[in-house]
Structure formats: structure tokens, C-alpha cells
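INFO batch 0412 | record 1 of 1 | parsing
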Amino acid sequence: MSRPGAPSRRLAGCVALTATALALAGCGSDDSPSNKAGKPEMKITGAYMPAPVMDTMAAGFFTVTNSGGADTLTSVTSDLASDVTLHSTKGGAMEEQKSFAVPADGSLDFASGGNHLMFEKLTHKPMEGEKVSVTLHFTKAGAVKVSMPVKSATYNPKTGH
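INFO prediction complete | emitting C-alpha cells
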């Protein structure tokens, strides 16, 4: 036989235990989708610069892959040039951009005929085989350093030549 009030104490204990378990489950880890969506994780691949034909300007290409929350590429700096600008190409017309959105769990391509970097007022004309140091500046992810190899002026990333 049980004592009076024992079932209500057991019920209260179960309710408290359940509430604690639910509260802990809501904390989540760094890998939870809601936290991951808020923290951009940038990976830069396929970076290259075609060997410039002019002494004063060059272009740069790469892909940004983001495995986290949305972010914005706001600027690019490099020791190679006093001015590095972001450009888009639409309908054959090149236009300077202030920034580029990088979607959550998505990518942003900088490729010949599309988005690209313009290096202006070069400190020197980089030669094929040289590596150019570039820093991409993101609103949330911060600065991401990239080593951009200089390829032949006719380099095609699809064929590797």
C-alpha cells in the first residue's frame, strides 16, 4: 500500500525530469541547423589569375563555397595592386559592384565572362607560375586569405590548360 500523496510526488518528479530533458534538448550543439545557418564557413577553390597582357591591370577568378549562414563579400585586397574591385558581367557589359551576396549553404562563382576581380594599378606584371596573395573580406566570416596562381593568358579551368 502506498502512502497518501506518493503518486502526486512521483508525478511531480516525472514532470520536473521531463521539463529538464526538454530544456537540455533545446540547447543544441554548434552543428545544429539554427546555429550553423548563422555562422558562415567559407571555402575558396579554383582560384587563378590569367597572366595579364597589360602592365597595369589583371583579372582574378575563384569559387566561394559557403557551408553555413548567408554572408556578403564586401572587398578584396592584395599586395599586387593598389585597387582591387568586384565586377559582374551581364549581357556583355561589365559593371563594378560594391559587394556580392554569398547564400547560406550555397556558392558564388567568379568566372571568365561573369563575376570577376579587377586588379588595377599593379605593383608589377605577374608572370605565369607566380602566386598572388589575395584577401577576401566578408561581413561575418571576416578575412579569408587566398593564394592565386598565375596561369597562362588562355587558361581554361574546365580543361586545365
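INFO post-check: The longest helix spans residues 6-27.
INFO record closed
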